[in-house]
Amino acid sequence: MTTLHDELAWRAQVDAAMRADDGWLTLAGLFWLNPGVNTFGSGEDQDIIFPANSCPAHLGVFIRDENDNVSIELTAGETVTINGNTSSSSSTLQGDGDGKHKPDVITYRDLSFFVIPRGHRVGIRLRDRNSTVRAAFTGRIWFDYDPAYRVEADFVAYESGKTIPILTVLGDVDDTPSPGYVRFDIAGQSYTLDAVAAGKGLFFNFRDTTCGKETYGAGRFLMAGEPQNGKVIVDFNRAVSPPCAFTIYATCPIAPSQNHLPIAISAGEKYHGDH
After folding, report:
1. What would the pLDDT profile of 106-159 be if each residue is shown by its tens digit?
2. What pLDDT score does 222 carry?
3. Which of 85, 134, 165, 186 is 20 to 30 A from 179, comparing alpha carbons?
4. How do beta strands 180-186 and 201-206 pair?
5. For the chain, what are the domain ranges?
């Protein structure tokens, strides 16, 4: 049984993760690559402009080939680290596979960046440990913990190979594998949510009638554990805003229509922001 003490400890952990050097608050750019050569650095004449004074005016080039592979070539005399190893030579970079793989991470001073394919696009995601968004962050805000929103749900498995279309903020539609759905009761009424696999657990992207008022307009994210004997605990006290609530450089999925709940889930993370 989750206690208020457990809940506060968990909230502290997710807050710390948001503030971390690799947290969403450090995102400082998302740059879509053109085919061929793309110059980058802090200079205003570069194709990809990094924050002022964060690196040389011309640090190097990214090259996107006809197969959408990306390589990096540095200006003579410059070095970076790639996955912690110092490099000054040309390297082909492993992308994050639309979030499915661990990408090669290039680091230069307080900057880090890596390749992200998204649909037909291929981009460079930039992190800056000195991000002004990170410096200004005052912390997540929450509804009061309410054990009534921690419910035991029935898990109903789909046949193998079932997918659900998920729209992203970029306008792409991804056919995403779904292991099944959950059915649960709140205040005597029954509701369902489609799940996406998250390791052995489940991931839910949902909206409720608080969205756009007390919570983030596009919806919220929620993780649950592995179903056991057809049951799983769904704890809406742990519903969180998606990364897009904190940065314009995220590429979040949007809650599918079947996960729009016609009730107010007054639990989990609130949102007071401007995007």
Report:
1. 999 999 999 999 989 999 999 999 999 999 999 999 999 999 999 999 999 999
2. 98
3. 186
4. unpaired
5. 20-136, 140-259
Three-state secondary structure call for residue 20 = coil
Query: In 3D, which of 210, 184, 209 has the Cα closest to residue 195?
Result: 184
What is the rounded average pLDDT for all residues in the chain? 95
d(CA 159, CA 221): 24
Residue written as token pair 């503030």: 19
The model's confidence at residue 88, banded by pLDDT at 50, 70 and 90, is confident
Residues 6+ apart with CB under 8 A from 152: 184, 231, 232, 233, 234
Strands (E), the chain: 27-32, 36-41, 48-49, 60-64, 70-74, 80-82, 85-87, 91-93, 106-108, 111-118, 121-128, 150-157, 163-167, 173-177, 180-186, 189-194, 196-198, 201-206, 220-224, 231-235
What top-level class would CATH report for the domain 20-136? mainly beta
> Quick check: 116 and 125 in contact, CB under 8 A?
yes
Question: Position of tokens 């924050």?
Answer: 51
Alpha-carbon gap, residue 93 to 82, rounded angstroms: 9
pLDDT digits (tens, 9 = 90+) for 195-242: 999 999 999 999 999 999 999 999 999 999 999 999 999 999 999 999
Q: Which residues of 249-258 are buried (b: 16+ CB within 10 A; e: fewer)?
A: bbbbbbbbee
Q: Are 10 and 105 in contact (CB under 8 A)?
A: no
Contact 133, 24 (CB under 8 A): no
Strand, helix or coil for residue 149 = helix
Q: Burial level of 100, CB count in 10 A (0-12/13-18/19+)?
A: exposed
